Structure formats: C-alpha cells, structure tokens
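Structure tokens please, single chain.
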Amino acid sequence: MRLGRASSLTKADPYYDERGTVGILRQVRATREVILSGGAFNSSQLLKFSGVGPPHELRDHGIDPVVDLPGIGENLQDSYEVGIVSKMTKDLALLKDCTWGADGDPCLRVVGVSVFPRIPGFFIVVPVYMVSEKTSDDIIVTAKGQAA
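Here you go.
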C-alpha cells in the first residue's frame, strides 16, 4: 500500500499518478492486520481498487483481481438522519412524572434501567426499533389510563 501525507490512499486508486500528487510518499509495512475504512461506499471502492471483489467487474475496469469476493459493493445503503427539534406550548402530560434518568424514574421502568446492558454485535437499529415499538405501546396504554 502507498499513502501520502495529507492525501488519500494511492495504491487503491487506479487513476493515481505520482507526478501530480502533492505530499510526501512513504511506504507503511504492518506485521499484523490493518483495518481500513472509507465509510458506507468507499470501503468497498477501496477493496475493488485493490483487486478484491467480483473478478468480471474488476477486469471490466482494468483492475487485476487479487481475491474473488462477489459480494463486495453489493446492496450498499447509507443511513441518513435528520434531527427535528420543536418547542411545545404546554407540557406533555405523558411525561410529567419523568425525572430523565434519576433513580426511580417512572418513564424508564417501562424498558428497564438500561435498554442495552451490553452493545449488540450487529446492526444497532434493529434492537432500537424493537425497544421503541414496545415502549411506545406501553406509553399509549399508560396515557389511556391517565386520561380515564
């Protein structure tokens, strides 16, 4: 692998031209595993530029296949988030007893003291959706009880 100071990885880029690069080139050698990440899309791009991926696709782009891994670059998705903040004109009755994490917070008893006693080893959104669904059902039941 070749990388330049204050630049991008160069070996991974088939269009790399040392003559037009700004920065200091140096070689880095590792004696153990190195993990490189370029985010949701560029990680697979980095692998493909380095010859890892579907051989037919690599050859179509003039890249010599090193490792045949057909799934590289498939089903890519990015997770966009948008924060929405609003100001309420009056307090929400549903939250009037919440102490926001203090001991005995009645709003936390629905899901327990900790939603995740340990970090799940997979896509975190799935358990968050599951907990949110359960919690919202319990909040609706509580709200209906308070309204009666």
